[in-house]
Amino acid sequence: MNIGQAAEQSGLPAKTIRYYEEIELVRPGRADNGYRDYSEDDLHRLCFLQRSRSLGFSIEECRLLLSLYDDDQRASADVKDIAKKKIKLIEQKIDELNTLKSTLSKLIKSCHGDERPDCPILDDLARNQVRK
Amino acid sequence: MNIGQAAEQSGLPAKTIRYYEEIELVRPGRADNGYRDYSEDDLHRLCFLQRSRSLGFSIEECRLLLSLYDDDQRASADVKDIAKKKIKLIEQKIDELNTLKSTLSKLIKSCHGDERPDCPILDDLARNQVRK
DNA sequence: CTTGACCTTCCCATAACTGTAAGGTTTAGA
DNA sequence: TCTAAACCTTACAGTTATGGGAAGGTCAAG
């Protein structure tokens, strides 16, 4: 299977698939004409990558997950651990964003939004945060 | 004021401050020995940048906010608009993360997490998403 | 036989820094 | 006075995960 088909079926851009080969996440064979040739197994890995990337796992996390997937002896507990840590990070990020949002909301509320040049948002941004 | 002091007082790493100069967000003078010399106004801008970056504004948004700040004639409505759009983006991101989180949570719940090699998380990741 | 849709490699760009190397300056202490 | 630490300088490379585009080879249809 050429890279075009692999792209279509995995949902990944061809460009990205080539990149995944460069960093050795997939190792397709080559046809006589030099074209990459993806096996069912290669395609499977690409789908795995597409899905796990879209779930927010970093490339290195995906590499780890793939190696666990490849390893018939791995314990499901290992995978569960990785996923749990990921959730923690996601929750942290959500918290941060909520804080950000409420700060910005407050600023917006206090801004009259007219043509006058004084603006509580800019004033807040300009406030020294670290200096005493 | 040397870059070290400016860094300490603005809460930005010196490295970052030099970067901000490179992209022309701050333009400190130079002392006779070639060291950067930060005025009160420069420091003010650095604090502004520290604060707005920490609130999630991109560099280019910060550049715009700074230009509005510099311009006594700007309308606070402009700033309010920028902040409102930012909130929308933040809300989007939060939604995405929540979706991610619930998907991962479901996967984790379905995983027994013991020493056995079968793992619903990996199974899900391996499922073809795009292929028919 | 040609056109267009593929495919190849290679290099540059992104955002917003961070790290490192190699060197100049200043300051405090022995 | 010497020296070592703590500053400062520039310049270049690396990071993350791709995306864009050039220059060129291949293949399938008409």
Describe it for me?
The structure is a homodimer of 132-residue chains. The first copy, chain A, is mostly helical and 132 residues long. The first copy, chain A, has two domains: 1-74, Orthogonal Bundle (Multidrug-efflux Transporter Regulator, Chain: A, Domain 2), CATH 1.10.1660.10; 76-132. The first copy, chain A, is built from six helices and two strands. Chain A has helices at 3-10, 14-22, 40-54, 59-70, 76-109, 120-126, and strands at residues 29-30, 36-37. A two-stranded antiparallel sheet of chain A has the order 1-2. Chains A and B meet through helix 1, helix 3, helix 4, helix 5 and helix 6 of A and helix 1, helix 3, helix 4, helix 5 and helix 6 of B. Chain B binds a DNA duplex (30 and 30 nucleotides) through residues 2-4, 13-16, 18-19, 23, 33-36, 53, 58-60.
